Amino acid sequence: MKTTAFCPISDKRIDEHVARLNGGFTVLFLALFVLTGSVLPILFLFADFALRSGNYSRFSPLAYLSRNVAKSLSLKPLLINAGPKIFAARIGVVFNLAIMLSYFSGLNNLSIVLTGVFGACAFLESAFGYCVACQIYPFVYKLTFHSKIQKLKI
């Protein structure tokens, strides 16, 4: 059994409860998209994930809502490294972009499938604290950074 994860590291910390609540709210917005057929929830999520994927997470409406829900539930902050969550937010931006492109291209079935995959990832984060992005990161690292580092060593 694998007991360690290879994830991006950051000097920032975030509250795990807030991250998991963000995942839950993401699932709700994705369900709203599927149920109504309106692209507005995806546009909102795209903007929110874009804020959270950079240095602007303090302006994220979902993070603000999640912080207030955690506070109202008197959840004691559980600080974790923000690196994996920032990487996951960047993947979220890509998913939202792919959903929007498929939707606006008339590929509605593809947009629903992408929404389902994205929703499953957000649900796993919210319900179990399982970060799918941490499983993807080693492949991204190998394709991008690792090859560049190897070239520098030669």
Descriptive overview:
This protein has helices at 16-36, 40-53, 61-72, 83-104, 108-128, 132-153, and strands at 13-15, 79-81. It is mainly alpha-helical and 154 residues long. It has one domain. A two-stranded antiparallel sheet has the order 1-2. The model has no long low-confidence stretch (mean pLDDT 89).
Walk me through the topology.
Layout: E1 13-15, H1 16-36, H2 40-53, H3 61-72, E2 79-81, H4 83-104, H5 108-128, H6 132-153
Antiparallel strand pairs: 1-2
Helix pairs in contact: 1-2, 1-3, 1-5, 2-4, 4-5, 4-6
Condensed summary:
The protein is mainly alpha-helical and 154 residues long. It has helices at 16-36, 40-53, 61-72, 83-104, 108-128, 132-153, and strands at 13-15, 79-81.
**Rg calculated over all Cα atoms:** 16 Å
Number of domains as seen in the coordinates: 1
- The strand count comes to 2
Structural class: mainly alpha
Which assembly state applies to the chains in this document?
single chain
Please estimate the helix content. over 70%
Order of helices and strands: EHHHEHHH
Approximately what portion of the residues adopt beta-strand conformation?
Answer: under 5%
Chain-averaged pLDDT: 89
Largest sheet: 2 strands, antiparallel
Unreliable stretches: none
Assign an overall shape: globular
Helix count, per DSSP?
6
Observed structural traits:
single chain, mainly alpha, two-stranded antiparallel sheet, 2 strands, 73% helix, globular
